[in-house]
Amino acid sequence: MQPFTTLSYSNRILHLDRLRIEHKILHQKEKQREFAKRPPCPYCNQTHVFKYGISPAGLTRYQCSACKKSYTTRSGTPAHWLHLRSKFDKYMYDMMFNGHRPLKTMATEFNISFVTAFDWRHKILASLNCTPKQFQGLVELRNSILPFSRKGIGRSKAANTAPEKTSLPVQLIITADTEYNASIHVARIGKLKATDIEVRLKNRFSRDAAIVSRVFEDKAGKPHHQSMAIKQFSKSNHLSIQQFSNSDNPFDLDDKNSSRFDNDLKSLIFNKTRGVSSKYLQHYADWTTLMRMRKEIKVIQAELYQNQQGWAAYTAREACFQRFMQEYAEIEHIRTSHRVWKTNTLNLNHNK
Is residue 231 part of a domain? Predict the structure, then answer.
């Protein structure tokens, strides 16, 4: 390249103009990269945000250009409005390493109240999202049931208006593939329909996926409606399916992976806890899935602290369950919690 000092005046001007344009383009790209690293607004999910000073905890504060609300990287996560961060980290590690332990034991060990131990558990569980983007290869699709429970209603006023114990089951859809992807979904309270599976699993199967499903039969030897719903779902989504039963299994098929998740969840509900309210059943289903997958705890913690919908999912648990009961249940919803949070206006864009 010719030295700048040897250039003519006009060439110097052209060279400086070119450098100025290149610098402007590089500056814009760097600015875009810096903007992309900023967390989106947890209130309206907009990505056009600006730096807005430093919080008392020393975190960078941002302001949304759309709703004008300010927030930090902790806003919306399980650490939202959290004062005992170090204890909470240890509590989370214990949950993911040791699995379920009684809340009284956790409260005593971490020197916190029973209510705090309960809140921390469900803040963490509400932030879990174990459903993979896609299932591949041979996919086991299994239906399971658990009894409906209103645990937590206690001696409240709602208990006086609650109907007698229902015999309707809670329908679970358990999915597991050969790549160790798995999920457990609470699909319906009552009789399972193909549309219930459609809502949870639509577009989550790769083109080469093939479904394997066990057929459960009634006393007359006919397939239960759950097995028919799975068959109808696979047909409507153009997925190949192989159904088998104990009496008819010519290809020696098995669904041992999905069966393990089913057994783990039922062991947690019936053996380790004194029952779980159906309102929180999806939380425990996600916990069971995560414990079986054996993901690194550091990775889990990082994902939880990046989930800006965790606080909203926790504070809106009653509202989400009410909406679920209205759409996917054949019995009336009875409100069991009247707690209200001033910060529960965060955007909730998923249905847990």
Answer: yes
* pLDDT digit string, tens, across residues 126-166: 888 778 888 988 899 989 999 998 887 765 555 555 555 56
SS3 of residue 181 by DSSP? coil
**Ramachandran bin of 183, using left for φ above 0, alpha for ψ from -120 to 50, beta for the remaining angles:** beta
Distance CA 335, CA 153 (A): 8
Range of the domain at 181: 138-287
Helices (H) and strands (E) in the chain, counts: 12, 8
Helix/strand/coil for 205:
strand
- Per-residue pLDDT, 343: 59
Give the 3-state secondary structure of residue 145. strand
Kindly give the interhelix angle for 281-293 and 256-267, rounded to the nearest 10 degrees. 130
User: What CA–CA distances, in Å, run from 324 to 104, 203, 247, 265, 312?
Assistant: 30, 21, 36, 21, 16
Of the three residues 14, 40, 71, the one that is the final residue of a domain is: 71
